[in-house]
């Protein structure tokens, strides 16, 4: 490879020597012409040193040539000397400096219109990456070099580019391309009868034959390559690679003895190469010292030039300063007077604006407080009846006598669960905007989830005479792990949007697998409709809060928050929503989400022994009759005895006169609320577990509830399994369960 690099440099030098006499002849001064001739002679000597392998001397000589060229104003030759330094560093395998000076030369050539210089620069950078075996990086440079070399009609240079392209494509596994470029390279090199590349060509041909499953022909090529190196009487990386490829090919043919002999020759030549590398390392160290010294001198010279330039600039500035000062002083007095008058007006205006700002700030703070209070009130008022709906639906689902209504009850519970989640998210849009929404991952069945969503829209579908079609790719695992509620909210909002804006049409819910691994699958969801469509100019606005597309055909009702929630929920999952739509041709919303793969059947087996709850006496403190019924049904279903207290005062009296194992305490009650009642209870009973039941945001109340003396919190409406776990943890006095309770409470 390095021998081939020297060939490229030789071709480059021939072109260089042809150009420079013209450049020199343009100078009129005889002394400059003589100096340029001397510079050319020095660069020819540098080339000789390069071919002799004296790379440290090449670098020293190039540093001298750069200084020489810059002194006589020959920038072109100064950059060419940097190119020579880059070549020397490449041979020394100092790729960092090779790139530094090579790319410096490439930047210079791009400013010219000379095909030779640009082809030389591209060839060098490509060869440098090829030496580093960075084939993808080398390819674009040879691609850029090829047309430039073709314009110059330089057969050898073009053939070498073909050779390099063949080598790159072979290493990338593109054998057909590699073979085509090899044929072009071979044709050109044969035409110019250039025998110095015979070894490299035979090696590459052997590797091509091996890649094309022709090992016998490959062996013939390797033998010819070895013979050509003997005739040429030199050893380099090419011969090392020939023996390595030869040995591997023999080994693949089970000719182990011959493969071993070739391997021994490979090891022998590699040892010689290792000794040469030690010498190159010494040369590199010397070169590094010279380059460092050169950089320091160049930096010093640059600083001196900068200092002289700055001094001249300061002198000129002082002159202009004194002239300008006289003019400015006159203008200053005029401006000062006008400024004084303007400042008075500005001060008065700022006072007025400041008062307006303070007033607006106060109004905004009052509005924020009112909004917060409104959200808290709405949250409680909506969650309280939902607690009854979800609780009763759950209890009815567990009633075996209602087995024929299981599907309807599931749909009822799903809709109530969705409504609860929707309320929570609408009320917590501020949380979405501040990225505080937490992801809750559970296992679920994708098909059942989508079917539940479809079922919840049966009434709306009948109203608009629409049909929903579901398509789930067969290769998607049915049981997934992810945020089921979040996915259902996104799909419900998108399907609901489609149902509202489609009349007598079709709606499609599609789930397609994007990628899959052992434990994760990425799914693309799409919701398509044949509805009114969305104009391009409004496609961005519909994701804003309280925005809807106007429809002339129907009166669409809604908050305008559905697509806003979708967008924010996806952003919270590091995903985006995409939209394709045209007026009258419907709309397609799509997004991509990753999910875990749940490999066990969806059968939940509790680790808790709920038989231990039988016989426990539970006091339920709640002022809402429906809530009392729901809680009582669940408690008594698992064998516990339930006593109801309609207020805090009644609860205190019952606890003073009766023995209970646990208290379920509602927070919001008329008269004494749950926290006040708990404080009263703790005065005479410090041990009984008290669990808070609240429909208010838990995060808002957690600190106050804990301070009142309660042991744990259950948010309404609650999941039955979680409800029982918390009761179990607070009733059973075991170390493990106590730790779980403490963890939950905190």
Task: Write a structural description.
- The protein is α/β, with parallel strands linked by helices and 746 residues long.
- Helices cover 66% and strands 10% of the residues.
- The chain has 25 helices and 12 strands.
- The protein has helices at 2-25, 30-51, 55-71, 75-91, 95-110, 115-131, 135-152, 155-171, 175-192, 198-211, 215-232, 237-252, 256-397, 406-427, 429-433, 446-455, 458-464, 484-500, 562-572, 625-637, 648-657, 674-684, 698-708, 720-731, 735-745; strands at 442-445, 467-472, 479-482, 506-516, 520-529, 578-581, 587-597, 617-621, 641-645, 662-666, 690-694, 712-715.
- The strands form 2 sheets. Strands 1, 2, 3, 4, 5, 6 and 7 form a 7-stranded mixed beta sheet that branches. A 5-stranded parallel beta sheet has the order 9-8-10-11-12, with helices on both faces.
- α1 packs antiparallel against α6.
- The two termini are 67 Å apart.
- The relative contact order is 0.04.
- Mean pLDDT is 79; it is low at 12-27 and 734-746.
């Amino acid at each position: 490879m390095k021998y081939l690099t020297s060939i490229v440099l030789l071709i480059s030098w021939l072109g260089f020597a042809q150009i420079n006499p013209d450049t020199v002849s343009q100078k009129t001064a005889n002394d400059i012409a003589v100096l340029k001739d001397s510079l050319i002679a020095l660069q020819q000597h540098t080339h000789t040193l390069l071919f002799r392998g004296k790379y440290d001397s090449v670098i020293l000589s190039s540093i001298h040539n750069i200084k020489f060229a810059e002194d006589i104003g020959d920038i072109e030759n100064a950059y060419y000397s940097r190119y020579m330094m880059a070549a020397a560093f490449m041979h020394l395998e100092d790729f960092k400096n090779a790139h530094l000076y090579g790319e410096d030369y490439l930047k210079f050539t791009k400013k010219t219109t000379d095909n030779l210089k640009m082809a030389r620069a591209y060839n060098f950078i490509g060869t440098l990456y090829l030496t580093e075996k960075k084939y993808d990086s080398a390819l674009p440079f040879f691609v850029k070099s090829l047309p430039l070399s073709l314009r110059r009609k330089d057969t050898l240079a073009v053939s070498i580019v073909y050779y390099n392209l063949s080598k790159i494509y072979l290493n990338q596994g593109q054998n057909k391309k590699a073979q085509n470029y090899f044929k072009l390279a071979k044709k050109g090199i044969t035409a110019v009868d250039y025998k110095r590349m015979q070894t490299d060509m035979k090696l590459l041909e052997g590797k091509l034959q091996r890649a094309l499953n022709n090992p016998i022909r490959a062996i013939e090529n390797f033998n010819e390559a070895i013979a050509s190196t003997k005739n040429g009487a030199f050893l380099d990386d090419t011969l090392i690679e020939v023996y390595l490829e030869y040995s591997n090919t023999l080994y693949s043919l089970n000719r182990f003895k011959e493969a071993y002999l070739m391997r021994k020759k490979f090891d022998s030549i590699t040892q010689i190469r290792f000794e040469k590398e030690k010498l190159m390392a010494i040369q590199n160290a010397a070169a590094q010292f010279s380059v460092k010294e050169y950089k320091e001198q160049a930096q010093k010279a640059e600083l001196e030039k900068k200092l002289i330039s700055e001094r001249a600039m300061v002198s000129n500035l002082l002159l202009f300063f004194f002239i300008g000062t006289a003019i400015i002083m006159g203008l200053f007095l005029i401006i000062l007077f006008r400024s004084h008058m303007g400042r008075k007006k500005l001060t008065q205006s700022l006072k007025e604006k400041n008062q307006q700002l303070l007033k607006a700030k106060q109004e905004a703070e009052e509005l924020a407080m009112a909004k917060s209070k409104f959200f808290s009130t709405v949250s409680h008022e909506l969650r309280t009846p939902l607690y009854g709906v979800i609780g009763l639906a759950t209890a009815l689902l567990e009633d075996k006598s209602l087995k024929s209504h299981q599907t309807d009850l599931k749909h009822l519970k799903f809709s109530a669960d969705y409504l609860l989640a929707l309320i929570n998210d609408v009320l917590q849009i501020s949380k979405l905007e501040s990225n505080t929404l937490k992801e809750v991952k559970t296992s679920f069945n994708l098909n059942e989830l989508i079917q539940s969503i479809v079922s919840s829209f049966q009434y709306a579908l009948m109203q608009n005479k629409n049909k929903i079609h579901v398509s789930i790719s067969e290769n998607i695992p049915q049981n997934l792990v992810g945020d089921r509620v979040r996915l259902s909210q996104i799909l419900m909002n998108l399907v609901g949007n489609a149902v509202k804006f489609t009349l007598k049409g079709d709606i499609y819910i599609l789930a397609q697998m994007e990628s899959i691994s052992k434990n994760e699958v990425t799914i693309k969801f799409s919701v398509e409709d044949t509805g009114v469509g969305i104009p391009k100019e409004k496609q961005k606005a519909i994701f804003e809060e309280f925005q809807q597309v106007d429809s002339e055909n129907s009166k669409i009702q809604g908050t305008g928050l559905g697509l806003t929630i979708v967008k924010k929920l996806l952003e919270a999952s590091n995903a985006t929503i995409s939209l394709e739509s045209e007026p009258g041709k419907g709309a397609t919303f799509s997004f991509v989400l990753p999910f875990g793969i749940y490999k066990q059947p969806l059968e939940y087996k509790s680790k808790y022994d709920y038989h231990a709850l039988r016989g426990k006496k539970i006091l339920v403190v709640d002022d809402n009759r429906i809530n009392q019924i729901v809680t009582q049904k669940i408690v008594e279903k698992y064998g516990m005895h339930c006593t109801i207290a309609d207020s805090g005062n009644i609860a205190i009296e019952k606890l003073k006169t009766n023995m209970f194992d646990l208290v379920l305490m509602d927070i919001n009650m008329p008269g004494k609320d749950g926290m006040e009642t708990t404080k009263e209870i703790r005065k005479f009973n410090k041990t009984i577990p008290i669990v808070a039941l609240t429909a208010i945001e838990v995060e808002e109340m957690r600190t106050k509830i804990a301070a009142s003396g309660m042991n744990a919190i259950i948010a309404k409406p609650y999941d039955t399994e979680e409800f029982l776990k918390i009761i179990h943890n607070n009733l059973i006095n075991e170390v493990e369960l106590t730790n779980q309770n403490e963890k939950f409470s905190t």
